[in-house]
Amino acid sequence: MKKKVAVGMSGGVDSSVAAYLLKEQGYDVIGVTMQIWQEEDPLVQAENGGCCGLSAVDDARRVADMLGIPYYVLNFKREFKESVIDYFMEEYMHARTPNPCIACNRYVKWEALLNRAMELGCDYIATGHYARVCRLPNGRYALKKSATVRKDQTYALYNLTQDQLSKTLMPVGEYEKEDIRLMAERIGLPVAKKPDSQEICFIPDHDYASYIIKETGKTFPAGNFVDQNGDVLGQHKGIIHYTVGQRKGLGISLGTPAFVTDIRPETNEVVIGSDKDTYHDSLLGNQVNFMSVDKPEGELRVTAKIRYSHQGAPCRIRMVGEDIISCQFEEPVRAITPGQAVVFYDGDLVAGGATIMGT
């Protein structure tokens, strides 16, 4: 009997080819698009691309029709608002810099979709992510970096659970991005040349602060820019406008390049320093999730990425509390940002990760 898989279809080329590959491999494939956009106005929905808008639904439906697979649009608006939008705003209001894609992957694209897929009688869910799922000799499931290193998306997926990984297929992770586009052209998919989505889907103009002010109805008062010693340097326009490591858009001139080195919500201060002040050699993280390894008893040597674009740096990690991990880098790294993820790699495997608490 064929195994049944629900493919999360965003209307993009990667998830479309994932559905095609799984059908070719003999799976009973159904296509699913998650409706997560909060606006009811069809014109507003249509203007917002990525995996949220009506255009995504239209493209995914056309691909599903061409592949001859059943297609459903499932409503995940509540899950998306609670697990992604509310979390995103709450983090910024507490001077942390969130990663909404990681939250969306863990709680919407996996937890919510997997539950719904099981109700539809599916054995697996699948996505078009550039990553690979493997089962290790120790019996654990882990993510392995994509064959396309520059497109690798394992950083944003470190938080998946063992149960979720055991029911996940990621067929495009075995291919180079160029091969995926060529395959889409060869089989005549209508989205073969569709550009990749880049922005956070619910804030396409990137103006996070205005979005938070509009949605919460709250005001975020101006406060002091201070230096490392607490001396006042000027006025900032509200802490939600800043993130650690930021240089542009500070609205302050000191005669030398200035960077945000810390944000203090309790005193409403934004600390400014030089570039060297943004470097630290250690961090603490919580909300720890281990993948290729069980919780370590002692110290582990790994490579850690502190943001999606970070190349990774050698470090030693160890648990220092029930849900707190310490990461000591061999050399200082720039702009360790509270709220972002730190992801640990053992070669090409994701060993685990955590949410950065601070340095």
Give a description of the structure.
It is a single chain. Helix 1 (13-24) crosses helix 7 and helix 4 (77-93) runs antiparallel to helix 5. Strand 13 and strand 14 (313-321) form a beta hairpin. It is built from 8 helices and 17 strands. With 359 residues, it is of the alpha/beta class.
Features:
alpha/beta, single chain, 30% strand, globular, 359 residues, six-stranded antiparallel β-barrel
Task: Write a short abstract of this structure.
This protein has 359 residues and is of the alpha/beta class. It contains eight helices and 17 strands.
Quaternary structure of the protein? single chain
Distance between the termini: 53 Å
Uncertain residue segments: none
Strand order of the largest sheet: 12-15-14-13-16-17
Structural class by secondary-structure content: alpha/beta
Q: Mind sketching the topology for me?
A:
Layout lengths: L3 E5 L4 H12 L3 E8 L6 H6 L6 H14 L3 E5 L1 H17 L6 H20 L4 E3 L4 E5 L5 E5 L16 H5 L1 E2 L7 H10 L21 H9 L6 E4 L5 E5 L22 E6 L4 E5 L5 E12 L9 E6 L7 E9 L2 E11 L6 E6 L2 E10 L1
Helix pairs in contact: 1-3, 1-7, 4-5
